[in-house]
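User: Predict the complex.
Assistant: Input components as received:
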Amino acid sequence: MARDPAARPGPRQIDFLADCRARLGFDLLANTWSSVTLWALRDGPLRHGQLKESLGGIRTKVLTETLRRLEFNGLLRREERAGPTRVDYELTDLGRSLLGPIEAVGVWSQQYGDEVLAAQDRAETRAAG
Amino acid sequence: MARDPAARPGPRQIDFLADCRARLGFDLLANTWSSVTLWALRDGPLRHGQLKESLGGIRTKVLTETLRRLEFNGLLRREERAGPTRVDYELTDLGRSLLGPIEAVGVWSQQYGDEVLAAQDRAETRAAG
DNA sequence: CAGAATCCTTTACGATACTG
DNA sequence: CAGTATCGTAAAGGATTCTG
């Protein structure tokens, strides 16, 4: 989504529904690995292999796709350093500016994650019982 | 993702990579309509038709799926009110607690959305030219 | 090491038609 | 009004193999 050039111009506060621009960030993060990948790079550049290790179960192909997409959107930079087969990925300023919102979701998850799981259990019990 | 019962127990600060629980929120929001749907309900209950109108191009089926998923995860509540074929959807406390992080992403989008679009243009120009 | 290539499965999303 | 049913497409993700 997030396409509507003729969106209403006057946002009083934040109106996601009148200003599709406000949905752009969600589109950027609306897949399994984007947020975590950005987060993994918060302390500095990492290489493909290091990222793969940090991110757990991610597959080579999926990691490459994720990195390409994040690069396309200006959130990180791919840099071939000296030495053979040595490639670093690092956040751009734009990517770094997203760490705050990402952290907000992460903090929420840690605070309320148990409640979500409990709700899921309740829903499943209700459906099964 | 976000499944790993044997995750390391000692999170110093916020370590998404050592604590998969912290990724739960991203999983909840990792689709096109979840965030916007929750946001649309911030001012109070809405009915199916009202939501559909608010959310723009969403299809009946997709809206129903989105609502079911959000309900399953305890973020909103489906309530059949008095009167025939009258159903309200309203945020739970848990769902309401997610409005903050959602807003953080929305604010970021409004601040930096243009930069993302510019980066996309640059990437496309570089690829085409 | 950093990936590209290939194949497969699942899921999301969209479009249309129909119903209690 | 609030869906359900069905069909189709596309994208995401996973698994495996191969390469400069």
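The longest helix of chain A spans residues 99-128.
Let me know if you want any component modeled separately.
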